[in-house]
């Protein structure tokens, strides 16, 4: 079972449920999200080591159900109980690395096009193609290049 989608939801749960959050509270919510993602990763890793996979999947289902119920009522700082988070290695959110890499790729394409002396009519499509390729490489299946085209067009197929 792959829980990457659930991880993405948990990392951003506090932003989706609360509009304005004070800085001290924001830090607390981010730390709780890191703990919860760490607990999920530990439970997911049990699939490969525990001989009773049925019990592992039951535990994962209960954990996900508890988090969904608490998220639904807005308890984003208590998605799991402290006992369930004891001894868990915190996860680290490195989304900023992907964003920086994407920015470097797009800016690099723009600078490269200008250094080559390409006219604007040729540079713009090249930069767009590089941006789509970079999104595809950096984000993989998380964000399809066709989704970026939809965003540019202001449309949504979903």
Structural commentary:
- The chain is an all-alpha fold and 158 residues long.
- Helices cover 73% and strands 0% of the residues.
- Helix 1 (4-17) packs antiparallel against helix 2, helix 2 (23-49) runs antiparallel to helix 3 and helix 6 (120-139) crosses helix 7 (145-153).
- The model has no long low-confidence stretch (mean pLDDT 84).
What are the main properties of this structure?
single chain, mainly alpha, 0% strand, elongated, 73% helix, 7 helices
Give a short summary of the structure.
The protein has seven helices and no strands. The protein is mainly α.
How would you classify the quaternary structure? single chain
- Mean pLDDT across the residues is 84
Low-confidence sequence ranges: none
Order of helices and strands: HHHHHHH
The fraction of residues assigned to DSSP E strands is under 5%
Topology:
Layout: H1 4-17, H2 23-49, H3 53-72, H4 82-85, H5 95-115, H6 120-139, H7 145-153
Helix pairs in contact: 1-2, 2-3, 5-6, 6-7
């Amino acid at each position: 079972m792959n829980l990457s989608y659930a991880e993405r939801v948990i990392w951003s749960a506090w932003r989706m449920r609360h509009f304005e959050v004070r800085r001290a509270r924001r830090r607390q919510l981010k730390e709780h999200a890191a703990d919860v993602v760490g607990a999920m990763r530990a439970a997911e890793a049990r699939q490969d080591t525990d001989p009773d996979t049925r019990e592992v999947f039951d535990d994962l289902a209960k954990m996900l159900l508890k988090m969904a119920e608490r998220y639904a009522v807005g308890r984003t700082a208590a998605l799991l109980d402290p006992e369930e988070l004891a001894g868990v290695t915190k996860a680290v959110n490195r989304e900023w690395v992907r964003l920086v890499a994407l920015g470097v790729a797009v800016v690099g394409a723009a600078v490269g096009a200008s250094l080559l002396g390409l006219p604007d009519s040729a540079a713009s499509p090249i930069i767009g193609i590089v941006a789509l390729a970079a999104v595809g490489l950096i984000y993989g299946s998380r964000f399809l290049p066709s989704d970026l085209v939809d965003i540019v067009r202001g449309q949504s197929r979903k």
